[in-house]
Write a structure and sequence with these properties.
single chain; alpha/beta; Rossmann fold; 9-stranded mixed beta sheet; 4 helices
Length: 190
């Protein structure tokens, strides 16, 4: 009888969330900068700790603590979703002649190397929470392998709820904000 009770309990289904770009249609590509800029940018794979290379949605509820939501997952690892988002944003609105994936066999004059330091839901003791993304980016001159510029991109967006759905909503907004920061930073470099 005890065995039957264990078998009849069902596990809730896993909910899968994704990062969806929210393009600002009012922001047009800088066609003049694109037509005069001959630079080709190649985006290297984003590096991170194992925590952000898995599909787990991570929350932190106290210092030094990182835990996954049990029945919720990302559609892909945060490092992969952000890389795709960065590439699409820069292709659509960036000042480069072309933006290439790291797997491209074409040569590029510049490389973008990024490290993801945080992509998690921060739960606070006062029952508030926020989605936080922090990425360090380096623009590399491929000719002499020198660092042209470095920028840390940070977005912290309040979450409407303290659960995986609230985390996904806040981290979507944070990802869009970080993408815009990246675009603005690279456009400001001569």
């Amino acid at each position: 009888m005890l065995l039957t009770a264990c078998v009849s309990q069902t596990t809730p289904p896993v909910t899968v969330y994704t990062i969806s770009p929210q393009w600002n249609n009012n922001q047009e590509p800088n066609q003049q900068a694109r037509s005069t800029n001959k630079a080709v940018l190649k985006i290297s794979p984003i590096r991170s700790t194992e925590t952000f290379t898995s599909r787990n949605i991570i929350y932190t509820d106290k210092q030094y603590s990182q835990n996954p939501y049990i029945y919720s997952r990302w559609s892909d690892a945060p490092v992969k979703m952000l890389q795709t988002m960065f590439q699409v944003q820069l292709e659509k609105k960036g000042p480069f002649k072309a933006v290439l994936a790291s797997t491209s066999s074409a040569r590029a004059s510049l490389s973008l190397e990024c490290t993801l330091y945080d992509f998690s839901h921060h739960l606070n003791p006062d029952n508030t929470s926020k989605g936080v993304i922090r990425v360090g980016c380096y623009l590399i001159n491929n000719k002499n392998r020198s660092v042209l510029a470095h920028q840390e991109l940070v977005a912290s967006i309040p979450s409407p709820t303290e659960n995986a759905q609230g985390a996904a909503m806040a981290l979507n907004k944070a990802a869009n904000e970080v993408s815009v920061q990246l675009l603005n930073w690279l456009a400001s470099i001569n």
